[in-house]
Automatic annotation (TrEMBL):
It comes from the Bacteria. InterPro entries: Aminoglycoside_PTrfase, CcrZ_PhaseVar_Mediator, Kinase-like_dom_sf. PANTHER family: CELL CYCLE REGULATOR CCRZ, PHOSPHOTRANSFERASE YTMP-RELATED. Residues 14-217 form the Aminoglycoside phosphotransferase domain. This is Phosphotransferase family protein.
Amino acid sequence: MEHLLGQDWEITPAGGVTGQAYIAKHDGQQLFLKRNSSPFLAVLSAEGIVPKLIWTRRLENGDVITAQHWLKGRELVPAEMKQSRVARLMSKIHSSQPLLSMLERLGKKRVYPEMMMIEIEKRLDEEAKNHHDIRKTISFLHSYLSEIGHGEYVVCHGDINHNNWLLSDENELYLIDWDGAMIADPAVDLGMMLYKYIEENKRESWLAQYGLAYTPHLELRMKWYGLAQTLLEIQWNKEIGRLREMREGLFDLPQILS
């Protein structure tokens, strides 16, 4: 990586699950580098959804390195997720035709609820499937699978946890870490947002800022996808040893079901 920028640059791992991200520093300059980012990053940058992409370079071994401006800022805290600017940025993402067109060109297929149900059944281990609240959740998902069909499929982030929202020191809001992007019902993102961060008596007004009316069918879809994603998060957190987060997910299940 050093030969790409020159020996004067100090390059250190940026952390994260994939281990493909780095921070490069030199003479007061700072870049965020990532190995083998999707071409989708360029469209996200052009749409102002992630920090600006500066350059893309291909290495001799075929790896592609991207460099973005390193912005001083911080993650949103959970209480800030109810802000109107979060709703507006999510609405912008879900309504973006350039984002949708790029994912389609990259070969992404629509993620239907039936496909998510199959993934849940395949991913959950036997211990998880025997947990009382997980059994109730899977039963709920099967019961309403035929009722949550929806005609609008958009680009969804797939992991809208507050630590993926970056607020720069210049008060610019970004949504980062797009490795799990999918084409799906917008309720995939909205369900996790509302059930995880927005109090029940404020969900209707938050959705109004997003640009949707709170209807019974939308509520059912958000509940279904919120539960489905929580199940997958529980299993993933268990597999990587994040037991506190796993227990939090198990606590969330009956809250969403109720």
